[in-house]
Amino acid sequence: MVRFSQVGLRYPDPTRGAAGERDTLRDLSFFLPQGSFTWLTGPSGAGKTSLLRLMQLALRPTRGEVEVLGVPLSRAKRADLPKLRRRIGAVFQEFRLLPYLTAFDNVALPLRLAGRAEASLRPDVAEMLRWVGLEGRADALPQQLSGGEQQRVAIARAVVTRPALLVADEPTGNLDAVQARRLIVLLAEMNRLGATVVVATHSHELIAQHPGHVMHLEGGRIVSLTPWPHAPAGEAAPESPDPAPAETAWEPAGAAGLLPEGFALDLSAPEPEAGWVEEVPPSEEAEEDAASLPPEEHHIPPAPSRPAGRSIWPSARVTRPYPEADHG
Ligand SMILES: Nc1ncnc2c1ncn2[C@@H]1O[C@H](COP(=O)(O)OP(=O)(O)OP(=O)(O)O)[C@@H](O)[C@H]1O
């Protein structure tokens, strides 16, 4: 789960000093239960990436408390952060692939850093590459891949660790409609089996493909956190969206379309270390903000219960991927 309590973020301004600094995020208070799916929307510069970086523990808040996967950041020892970060998968707009490693090795990296045996990680990595449609490009270096292909490698790398929390910043930005659809199915499957998923997007089309909650940011503040689809007060939410159109419906490659048995989310186990996490800068002094509004607590209901320990991949053609989604 993720809990923010009166969180503010102010980036230092090395060119103008304290006088030039301003709050990027203000008074964010919300709670996302484990297993929830949240879309993060808002105009450019609203603070979506900054919010995701706080959730990823790549930044510390200037004020307030960030609690991720049950750990309040203010009380976590610096030495404990890498372990916590291992349970968080992140896909950012810049892919951060290592240029001298092949697609396969980039995806395998977090598993190798965690000490996974080569024989056990290879099937998982190969299957992830197959899932994102890159089974034939395993030996390619990032520079030999298109932007969309690099993005898919980054997605595979974020997901192969089976994170309990997955944050993605415009993850479909370089993907065509079919690949975008496959990614949403992937995120939905991870979410269905227990991962908390938060995805920043400008695409209403994408949001329409998978129900969740929509957190809308403007000017660094939460303007709304609402169930999707939106329903006027007092009216029932409309039915879930129709299945994907035929041309974008996902069908797993290969006979069964399954990842290896055992490739299931284990939300309690320590996860492999992600090798691309950033340093967390030292916390800055909290400052009083006289202009700030009273904090508003945003809360979304828990996700529906789900079976534990099953393979994360659907065993058959997905014609109606989100049958048990809760629109309430
Ligand atoms: N490292 C940084 N140092 C200083 N200011 C920053 C830094 N990163 C972001 N900002 C500022 O914080 C504000 C919010 O940026 P952020 O990238 O979080 O917005 P966003 O909603 O993700 O935008 P977009 O949709 O364009 O990606 C912007 O005004 C940006 O200039």
Automatic annotation (TrEMBL):
Amino acid composition bias (Acidic residues), ranges on this chain: 281-290
Any GO molecular function: ATP binding
Keyword flag Phosphoprotein: no
Entries under Pfam families matching the protein: ABC_tran
Alphabetized UniProt keyword annotations: ATP-binding, Nucleotide-binding, Transport
Classification via Gene3D superfamilies: P-loop containing nucleotide triphosphate hydrolases (3.40.50.300)
Residues covered by the ABC transporter domain: 9-244
Composition-biased stretches (Low complexity): 227-249
Region span, Disordered: 226-249, 265-328
CDD domains on file: ABC_MJ0796_LolCDE_FtsE
Keyword Transcription regulation set for record: no
Protein name per UniProt: ATP-binding cassette domain-containing protein
